[in-house]
């Protein structure tokens, strides 16, 4: 709990806190420099949760997106091994604005390939992936603070894994499934507490699930489909859900269409049923990425291989797709994404 006295001299602390709570998130980096009291307040989880309770946060979509070729690594005279380098872009659906986050200091020429995104208490979390030069898997965890507009390196993932499911539940980031460095599918799962920078092991799922998809439905974290080591590429129709405190996974049969890859394209109906966005009416057929933003969903993708990205806002109640304008400089391939409430 942060001491709230003298937040604004001459004002009762409740009124002063209400005034600061109403500041837009874009002003927070400057506000933290006013005084030590404000600095501690704006960096506290208590203040973030207070803003969230009082309706003064808003949701943005963060994407792992290919960078324009002339901005990826030319500036440091390093030629990337892969065709594209990737960075984090941010789309604000309220202002319809796009922006790019500064590179992770450890990877100035592009994020690890196939890294995964999640969030916790207004912070963006980047984890795992392949080193963009050696293609070896990495266990790195990076946390971006929108208040300070800076990165910090978190505690490494306990196990090496690629193509895993990830999602945020009750402030903790959960990772599950994927495969290890020997391409063996995994059934293990871990939870990362961002504020404490600690990992804790969760119960194992009922089976291995490589290339599975994670999403949160209500108060449960779901791991959808995937396949076992001996069933390379043959996606399961089952899913598993985990509720914090339950101590076990619940297996759901016939939750997904067998043989269809679930990665980044799992939609949820208003009745809680899963469906594939590739079968939607949007016309998007390739490279689909879905980000849930409260009562609406952002869907990106292209109509054909290597085609330009299209952006849609989907109303969850009606399932109606509304095409949104996308600036030319942000129409590069989007690999994955997540929602951050800032």
TrEMBL record:
GO terms of biological process kind: negative regulation of cytokinin-activated signaling pathway; regulation of phenylpropanoid metabolic process
CDD domains: F-box_AtAFR-like (cd22152)
Pfam families found in the cross-reference section: F-box, Kelch_KLHDC2_KLHL20_DRC7
Occurrences of domain F-box (ranges): 9-49
Protein's name according to its UniProt entry: F-box domain-containing protein
Organism of this sequence: Acer saccharum (Sugar maple)
């Amino acid at each position: 709990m942060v001491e709230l006295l003298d937040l604004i001299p001459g004002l009762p602390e409740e009124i002063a806190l209400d005034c600061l709570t109403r500041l837009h998130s874009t002003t927070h980096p400057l506000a933290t420099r006013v005084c030590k009291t404000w600095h501690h307040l704006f960096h506290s989880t208590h203040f973030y949760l207070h803003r969230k309770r009082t309706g003064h946060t808003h949701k943005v979509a963060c994407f792992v997106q290919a960078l324009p070729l002339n901005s990826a690594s030319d500036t440091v005279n390093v030629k990337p091994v892969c065709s594209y380098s990737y960075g984090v872009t941010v789309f604000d659906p309220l202002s319809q604005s796009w922006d790019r986050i500064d590179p992770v200091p450890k990877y100035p020429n592009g994020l690890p390939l196939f890294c995964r995104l999640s969030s916790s208490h207004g912070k963006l979390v980047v984890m795992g992936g392949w080193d963009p030069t050696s293609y070896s898997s990495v266990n790195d965890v990076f946390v971006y603070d929108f208040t300070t507009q800076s990165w910090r390196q978190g505690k490494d993932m306990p196990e090496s894994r690629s193509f895993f499911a990830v999602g945020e539940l009750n402030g903790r980031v959960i990772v599950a499934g994927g495969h290890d460095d020997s391409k063996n599918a995994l059934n293990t799962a871990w939870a990362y507490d961002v504020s404490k920078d600690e990992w804790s092991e969760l119960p194992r799922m009922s089976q291995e699930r490589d290339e599975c998809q994670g999403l949160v439905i209500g108060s449960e974290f779901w791991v959808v489909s995937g396949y076992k080591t001996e069933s390379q590429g043959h996606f399961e129709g089952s899913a598993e859900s985990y509720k914090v405190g339950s101590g076990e996974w619940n297996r759901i049969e016939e939750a997904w269409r067998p043989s269809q890859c679930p990665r980044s394209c799992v939609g949820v109906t208003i009745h809680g049923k899963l469906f594939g966005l590739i079968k939607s009416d949007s016309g998007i057929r390739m490279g689909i990425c879905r980000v849930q933003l409260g009562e609406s969903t952002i869907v990106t993708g292209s109509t054909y291989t290597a085609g330009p990205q299209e952006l849609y806002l989907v109303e969850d109640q009606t399932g109606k797709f509304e095409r949104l304008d996308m600036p030319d400089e942000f129409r590069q391939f989007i690999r994955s994404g997540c929602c951050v409430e800032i």
